[in-house]
């Protein structure tokens, strides 16, 4: 019997059990109607003598999605969230949350006010608020520690990653998993509990044993602080979450903890980091869309893949396909390299097993999807081939010719080139529409960024398909037009150029790195250059017989002394055997001084602020040109690139968002102060100037007819090779 009475909750009765079904498509947020419905039906069930238990569940694939963001900032209609949840928590009849799908954030917090929780085996639970710069503000920080212990609760809230039903059961977040019909099992579960004649069914808020155990144990909080420092450096919300859990541990009165949670939540809400992180959250979704390609563009089926080249990148790319469940052949021309590449793949997976990130069975399964081969003929059936051989245009063209000949007509041919012209590669095939760049970042199995490079002939289907593969792999995929350096490396050129110039003008590598790391970059530019290897540019310049540009004079001089970076244990820094930790290299200082003086540069004290401004605004100005040319579709795409591929702090929202926050006229002011150092470099991009003049902000790329000419990029200015 179903009585649809009000709003967005359905009420039905099965024997002595009332069933409240939240029905608010598509994901069941706790909108005003839902809150009112819950409130009314909890009262109704409580007032109905024939009812002995209540099931709370969701319609569709979601249990409850949490607060309704469209109501943010408005005065709530009907009961507010806390009131509605309290009514469930203080129901006289036991309430069971029957978690039919995802219960994230407020969804799980709603389940936590119920007496019992049961999930289907597909249920997903989690408190991901931290990813938006927030904390679980509907009692999650007070109830979860009581349910599963403060240590586990902190790990779950600081990571913010969703958890499978199986894991949730192991951890005690849920009490049972339903293998058959969720509602039937939930009714049976409640009948059993009702049969026990309990005077009171347990409430999570009353379960104090675990928090009391942690009282006086400093390790719980200090371990959480260490975890936050390591995984969420510079972020505000994790510290607030820890403070909430501290209250859960130390406050005798549950409601005092709740009050603190509300205060700390508000502090997160007004912190600028929240806006930055929400920008990134939506920015990643926006980046996955290609503005001029219709949504309904059919995707080409991708059921098998081939990788050409089993080196650093090829192996990692193969792992991405296997992890997404796509069988993949790995081809190399060199048997030894192939063997070594397969060995590295196996070792990487083993490391994940050792660290508990994967089971042995999972490892066997994914490894089983990767097959080595020395023969192109074996690639005849693949739906996509990704080339990852040495960075050489003729070689790549040769390989694309072979792939074109051997693969089926519909197969996509992708290149992992870091910067070669995709159109030139495509021209060696008879299917330029099926050719695209897939620029993975190293290590490819770890880094989330994937630049998808759109050639002039890449078809809509090809682009849409590759973007969807990126999604299947869990990558942050961003489209770039085929222009030098694509998005990320093109912006990076100006950033490292400024770092190198600062070194010539008087700063030391350690100072530059520390300033930028305190800004939030995961690794300063000199540590990064040491990691990549200073010899790459040096060799390339020698090979091409190019005179060393001013900005590279110091790194080339270091190479002349065999200081190539980490690979030779010395570069800008010194490294002890087998360690990646940089130690200052005072012996380099004489070289710095000598080169500065040879070039008539008077070394001076440079402030940390100048270092930050020059390096970060170099990213911004080049980003403006990239946007103006339409190489990136929108400024948010560049933010996604920088956060996922270059260690830019997520809580600053990416370089372009940072510039918008700073105000573009302030960006121009700062740049014009630097123009006396280098007038040419600090010339504002026309789009930046125009937006600043109109109090505008970076957003979408201009319409095609208003775009600046593509490839206005001048490598010589930027200190490139
Ligand atoms: N290493 C990085 O950090 C990185 C990052 C992004 C993009 N890339 C790009 O990825 C590509 C591969 O770089 P890598 O670092 O993996 O190179 P690598 O030197 O580690 O591996 C290249 C592999 O290609 C194989 N190979 C060479 N010619 C071949 C042929 N004709 N047929 C089959 N196999 C052949 C080699 O035997 C070797 O195993 C390059 O275009 C590079 O610019 C590299």
Observed structural traits:
N-(1-d-carboxylethyl)-l-norvaline Dehydrogenase, domain 2, Rossmann fold, binds nicotinamide-adenine-dinucleotide, 8-stranded mixed β-sheet, 3 domains, 7-stranded mixed β-sheet, 47% helix, disordered N terminus, alpha/beta, 2-enoyl-CoA Hydratase, Chain A, domain 1, 721 residues, globular, disordered C terminus
Overall CATH class of the largest domain: Alpha Beta
Morphology call: globular
Number of strands: 23
Percentage of residues in helical conformation = 40-55%
**Cα distance spanning the termini:** 75 Å
Question: Are any ligands bound, and if so which?
Answer: nicotinamide-adenine-dinucleotide
Report the mean per-residue pLDDT as an integer: 94
CATH superfamily of the largest domain: 2-enoyl-CoA Hydratase, Chain A, domain 1
Low-pLDDT stretches = 1-7, 712-721
How is the largest sheet built, in terms of strand order? 16-15-14-17-18-19-20-21
Say what the CATH topology of the largest domain is.
2-enoyl-CoA Hydratase, Chain A, domain 1
Alpha-beta classification: alpha/beta
> How would a textbook summarize the main sheet?
8 strands, mixed
Number of helices: 29
Gross CATH architecture of the largest domain: Alpha-Beta Complex
Number of domains as seen in the coordinates: 3
Query: Over the alpha carbons, how many angstroms does the gyration radius reach?
Result: 29 Å
What portion of the residues fall into strands of 2 or more residues? Answer: 5-15%
């Amino acid at each position: 019997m179903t009585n649809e009475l009000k709003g967005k909750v359905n009420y039905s009765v099965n024997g002595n059990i009332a069933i409240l079904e939240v029905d608010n498509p598509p994901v069941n947020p706790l909108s005003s109607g839902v809150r009112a419905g819950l409130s009314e039906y909890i009262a109704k069930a409580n007032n109905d003598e024939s009812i002995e238990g209540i099931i709370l569940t969701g319609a569709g694939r979601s249990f409850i999605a949490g607060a309704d963001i469209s109501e943010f900032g408005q005065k709530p209609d009907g009961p507010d969230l806390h009131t509605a949840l309290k009514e469930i928590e203080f129901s006289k009849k036991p309430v069971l949350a029957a978690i039919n799908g995802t219960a994230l954030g407020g969804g799980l917090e709603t389940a936590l006010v119920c007496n019992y929780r049961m999930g289907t085996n597909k249920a997903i639970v989690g408190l991901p608020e931290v990813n938006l710069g927030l904390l679980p503000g509907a009692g999650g920080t007070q109830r979860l520690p009581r349910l599963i212990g403060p240590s586990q609760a902190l790990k779950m809230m600081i990571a913010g990653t969703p958890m499978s039903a199986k894991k949730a059961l192991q951890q005690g977040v849920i009490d049972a998993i339903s293998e058959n019909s969720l509602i039937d099992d939930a009714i049976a579960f409640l009948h059993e509990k009702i049969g026990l004649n309990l005077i009171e069914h347990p409430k999570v808020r009353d379960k104090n044993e675990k928090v009391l155990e942690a009282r006086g144990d400093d390790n719980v909080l200090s371990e959480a602080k260490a975890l936050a420092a390591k995984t969420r450096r510079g972020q505000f919300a994790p510290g607030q979450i820890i403070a909430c859990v501290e209250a859960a541990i130390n406050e005798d009165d549950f409601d005092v903890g709740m009050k603190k949670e509300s205060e700390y939540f508000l502090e997160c809400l007004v912190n600028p980091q929240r806006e930055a992180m929400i920008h990134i959250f939506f920015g990643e979704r926006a980046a996955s869309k290609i503005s001029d390609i219709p949504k309904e563009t059919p995707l080409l089926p991708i059921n098998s893949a081939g990788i050409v080249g089993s080196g650093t990148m090829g192996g990692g790319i193969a792992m991405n396909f296997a992890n997404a469940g796509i069988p993949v052949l790995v081809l190399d021309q060199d048997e030894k390299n192939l063997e070594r590449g397969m060995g590295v793949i196996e070792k990487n997976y083993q490391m994940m097993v050792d660290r508990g990130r994967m089971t042995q069975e999972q490892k066997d399964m994914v490894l089983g999807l990767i097959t080595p081969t020395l023969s192109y003929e074996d690639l005849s059936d693949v739906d996509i081939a990704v080339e990852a051989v040495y960075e050489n245009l003729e070689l790549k063209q040769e390989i694309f010719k072979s792939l074109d000949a051997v693969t089926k007509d519909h197969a996509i041919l992708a290149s992992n080139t870091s910067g070669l012209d995709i159109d030139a590669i495509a021209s060696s095939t008879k299917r330029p529409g099926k050719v695209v760049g897939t620029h993975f970042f190293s290590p490819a199995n770890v880094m989330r960024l994937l630049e998808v490079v759109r050639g002039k002939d890449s078809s809509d289907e090809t682009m849409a398909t590759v973007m969807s593969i990126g999604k299947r792999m869990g990558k942050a995929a961003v489209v770039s037009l085929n222009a030098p350096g694509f998005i990320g490396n093109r912006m990076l050129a100006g950033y490292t150029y400024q770092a190198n110039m600062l070194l010539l003008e008087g700063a030391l590598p350690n100072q530059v790195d520390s300033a930028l790391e305190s800004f939030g970059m995961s690794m300063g530019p000199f540590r990064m250059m040491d990691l990549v290897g200073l010899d790459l540019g040096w060799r390339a310049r020698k090979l091409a017989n190019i005179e060393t540009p001013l900005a590279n004079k110091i790194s080339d001089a270091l190479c002349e002394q065999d200081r190539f970076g980490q690979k030779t244990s010395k570069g800008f820094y010194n490294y002890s055997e087998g360690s990646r930790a940089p130690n200052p290299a005072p012996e380099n200082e004489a070289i710095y001084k000598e080169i500065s003086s040879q070039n008539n540069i008077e070394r001076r004290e440079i402030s940390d602020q100048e270092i930050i401004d020059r390096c970060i605004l170099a990213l911004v100005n080049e980003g403006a040109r990239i946007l103006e040319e339409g190489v990136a579709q929108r400024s948010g795409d560049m933010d996604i690139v920088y956060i996922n591929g270059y260690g830019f702090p997520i809580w600053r929202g990416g370089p372009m968002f940072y510039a918008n926050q700073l105000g573009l006229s302030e960006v121009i002011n700062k740049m014009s102060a630097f123009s006396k150092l280098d007038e040419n470099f600090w010339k504002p991009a026309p789009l930046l100037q125009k937006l600043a003049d109109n109090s505008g902000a970076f957003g979408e790329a201009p319409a095609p007819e208003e775009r600046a000419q593509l490839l206005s990029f001048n490598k010589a200015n930027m200190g490139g090779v």
